């Protein structure tokens, strides 16, 4: 949000006019009415520019408040992202541990497969040798072997040997079958472990991608908010600078207008006008002694509007232990008006005000026994009786 082109042009025009005005002050003055009208026109333009700049300031302040609200929402979102990041890292750690465990199991199963393969190969070789021997020598003629025995004992012995050979052949076949089944089971386990490892790897990669994405998201949100906040703050600084320049220009124009007019015709600060204490010596209600009262007190209800008694520029807004919330307005020509004990102040330093503009709300701050407006008029630093000037 930058300052508009029209605002820049208007501001430059106002500065040129002000420079010309200050330069002309060293030259013979024009007739009062013509020059005063010219200054008044410049003042009205400068006040419009100042109002526009202050409106822009208010918009920027609202935008900054909106960014602050967004920042709070983003912080809450980032906390969720951080929680998701922690969960993703935890899951990744679990998956990594399981992956390492399954990898170790795979190594063990592969070693067992190698052993089973070796046993299977050994048994298969023995069985192959046995089958080749039978093919080469032909099948054993059991009757010839049995009846070739010289005695019954030898017959029985040969029968037992043949039975043992047949049993061994059957056992060898069964062993080969068992080793083959065991080998196939181990191979299935190897494949199962490999499939699980592939799944774990994919899952780990997914969590790893989530971690990276969440970190990027967190950085982007933080950077975006910070960039916007910095941009708005820079624009607000620019608006404050323009506001200060315009306020100074307005103040200079008001002082020059008042100087040329040479007129100070104030109005009462509140209505209706009820004076509760005059300028001069009095019994001090708080200190309990005779003491000079340098102003005039006007009765007012709490929160009642207090008005500028004459056109001028707000010189000071502050809190004082004695005066409470205090407003001082410079009317030019060495004249200032002081408004004390306000409950709150609604103008700011450097602001140009017209006669009758609201400047504060009445109260009882500072040394005060009840709500009222304490008005002082200073002329070249000397406090004067306000009723010498105010007419109503």
Q: Give the proportion of residues in helices.
A: 55-70%
Largest sheet: 8 strands, antiparallel
What value does the average pLDDT take? 76
Shape: rod-shaped
Which class of secondary structure composition applies to the elements? alpha+beta
CATH-defined architecture of the largest domain: Orthogonal Bundle
Order of helices and strands: HHHHEEEEEEEEEEEEE
What value does the Rg take, in angstroms? 52 Å
Tally of separate helices: 4
CATH class group of the largest domain: Mainly Alpha
Query: Could you say what the CATH topology of the largest domain is called?
Result: Helix Hairpins
Q: Domains counted in the coordinates: how many?
A: 2
- How would you classify the quaternary structure? single chain
Given as residue ranges, the uncertain stretches (5+ residues, pLDDT < 50) are 1-32
Number of strands: 13
Alpha carbon gap, first and last residue: 48 Å
């Amino acid at each position: 949000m930058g300052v508009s082109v029209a605002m820049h042009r208007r501001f430059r025009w106002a500065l040129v006019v002000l420079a010309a005005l200050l330069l002309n002050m060293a030259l013979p003055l024009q007739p009062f009415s013509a020059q005063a009208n010219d200054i008044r026109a410049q003042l009205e333009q400068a006040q419009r520019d100042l109002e526009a700049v202050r409106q822009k300031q208010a918009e920027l302040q609202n935008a900054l408040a909106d960014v602050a609200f967004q920042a709070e929402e983003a912080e809450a979102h980032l906390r969720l992202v951080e929680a998701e990041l922690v969960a993703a890292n935890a899951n990744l750690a679990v998956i990594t541990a399981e992956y390492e465990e399954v990898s170790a199991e795979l190594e063990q199963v592969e070693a067992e497969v190698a052993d089973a393969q070796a046993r299977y190969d050994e048994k298969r070789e023995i069985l192959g040798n046995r089958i080749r021997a039978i093919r080469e020598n032909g099948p054993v003629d059991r009757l010839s072997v049995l009846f070739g025995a010289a005695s019954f004992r030898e017959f029985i012995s040969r029968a037992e040997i043949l039975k043992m050979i047949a049993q061994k052949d059957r056992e060898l076949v069964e062993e080969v079958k068992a080793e083959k089944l065991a080998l196939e089971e181990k191979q299935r386990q190897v494949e199962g472990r490999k499939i699980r490892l592939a799944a774990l790897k994919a899952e780990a990669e997914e969590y790893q991608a989530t971690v990276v994405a969440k970190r990027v998201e967190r950085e982007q949100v933080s950077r975006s908010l910070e960039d916007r906040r910095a941009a708005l703050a820079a624009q607000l600084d620019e608006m404050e600078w323009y506001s200060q320049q315009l306020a100074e220009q307005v103040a200079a124009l008001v002082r020059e207008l008042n100087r040329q007019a040479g007129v100070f015709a104030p109005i009462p600060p509140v209505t209706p006008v009820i004076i509760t204490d005059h300028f001069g010596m009095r019994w001090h209600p708080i200190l309990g002694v005779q003491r000079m009262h340098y102003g005039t007190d006007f009765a007012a209800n709490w929160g009642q509007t207090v008005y500028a008694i004459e056109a001028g520029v707000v010189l000071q807004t502050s809190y004082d232990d004695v005066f409470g919330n205090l407003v001082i307005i410079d009317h030019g020509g060495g004249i200032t008006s002081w408004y004390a004990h306000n409950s709150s102040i609604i103008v700011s330093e450097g602001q140009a005000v017209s006669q009758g503009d609201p400047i504060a709300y009445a109260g009882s701050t500072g040394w005060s026994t009840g709500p009222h407006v304490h008005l002082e008029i200073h002329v070249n630093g000397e406090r004067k009786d306000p009723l010498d000037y105010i007419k109503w």
